[in-house]
Amino acid sequence: MHPVVNQLIQLEELILIRDEQKLMSGEAHLENLNAAIKAMTGKLPRDVREHAEKLGNKQQSAIVPIAVQVCSGCGMSLPISLVQAVRLAREVHNCPNCARMLYFVESAAKRIANKRRRTGRQKGGIARFSSPSLMIPKLTSTTVEEVIEEMASKMEAEGFVEGSDKLVEAALQREAIVSTAVGHGLAVPHVRGVEGGGLALAVGLSSKGIRWDGDQEELTRIVVFIVIPTAASAFYLKLLAGLAETFSDTEARSAFLAEKDADGMWKSLAKLTRKTVK
Ligand SMILES: [Zn+2]
Predict the structure, then answer these.
(1) Residue 78 C-alpha to ligand 1 middle, in angstroms?
(2) CATH code for residues 3-104
(3) What is the pTM of this model?
(4) Which CATH class is domain 125-272?
(5) Are the C-beta atoms of 253 and 224 separated by less than 8 Å?
């Protein structure tokens, strides 16, 4: 891969993570991220940096993947010659329509299974993304890694995703940059950029609590594991913000933690997020 493309992808990742953190926990703990973003931006060649900053000012990603010959930034079909050039990556190429820089993703390792079950009529709110079978009233794991494994395996067992080991790896990489424990005993480990399928989320409760982030005094008791396809990359930020809002409320949190079985969790989750997740 072209080194500048690689730098841009890493930079894009950090900017997205900063957006997530801002939405979930406000401006706190952003110093390290800001410093990393500044340092990485400074290393880009001048023309690329100016181009990236121009897109950033319009709240647009500087670089986006090509998904099946389509620019995932604007949705335009790209000429095969351009796709090939991006794939060879001898230089940095822009989308002729939206001007975002492009990169090529070799393989779709993390694919959401198509066999995802649909139950009955079209549901609204958070029910679109989950099912009672993805509610875990008693997480048996006690560490971050094990909990993510437990939840990803559950998703796979219920036919929502495949290749859960890859998901676990990606979720842990994300945790390594900045913890997704957002306070109030809530953590939202997640994987972005999954191919195909729809957004899926599983929710687990831990009565003992999990030490998610060494810096945080509060133990994590509610874990929401989210798998996000590229197509939902704008929506998921709203979802994260909605979940953080719901569970920052003490009453909502205790009501949810009091649930003892999957059905109770499912009903309670729908009720508590009615206003925050549209
Ligand atoms: Zn485009």
Answers:
(1) 8
(2) 1.10.287.1490
(3) 0.83
(4) alpha beta
(5) no
